[in-house]
C-alpha cells in the first residue's frame, strides 16, 4: 500500500470511531438531555483528547529535531 492509501484509511477510521464515540447509546438525539450530554460532556472530552494528541505529536517532533 502506498502512503496516501494508508493515511486515507487512518483518517476514515478516525472519523468513524469519533462518530461512534459521540453517539454511543444516546438513543434519540432530539431529546434535550441527550443533546446536553453530547454537547457538555462528550464533545469537550473528545476535543481535549485530540488537542492533547496533536500537542504531544508536535512536542515529539521538536525533541527529535533538536536531538538529532
From TrEMBL:
Gene Ontology CC entries for this record: plasma membrane
Transmembrane region(s): 7-26, 46-67
Keyword Endoplasmic reticulum tagged: no
UniProt keyword list: Cell membrane, Membrane, Transmembrane, Transmembrane helix, Transport
GO MF term (any one): transmembrane transporter activity
A Pfam family recorded for this sequence: FecCD
Membrane topology: Multi-pass membrane protein
Subcellular location: Cell membrane
Protein family (similarity comment): Belongs to the binding-protein-dependent transport system permease family. FecCD subfamily.
Protein name listed in UniProt: Iron chelate uptake ABC transporter family permease subunit
Organism of provenance: Staphylococcus aureus
Amino acid at each position: 500500500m502506498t502512503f496516501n492509501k494508508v493515511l486515507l484509511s487512518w483518517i476514515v477510521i478516525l472519523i468513524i470511531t469519533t462518530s461512534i464515540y459521540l453517539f454511543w447509546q444516546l438513543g434519540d438525539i432530539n431529546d434535550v438531555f441527550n443533546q446536553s450530554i453530547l454537547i457538555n460532556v462528550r464533545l469537550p472530552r473528545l476535543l481535549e483528547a485530540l488537542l492533547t494528541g496533536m500537542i504531544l505529536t508536535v512536542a515529539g517532533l521538536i525533541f527529535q529535531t533538536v536531538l538529532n
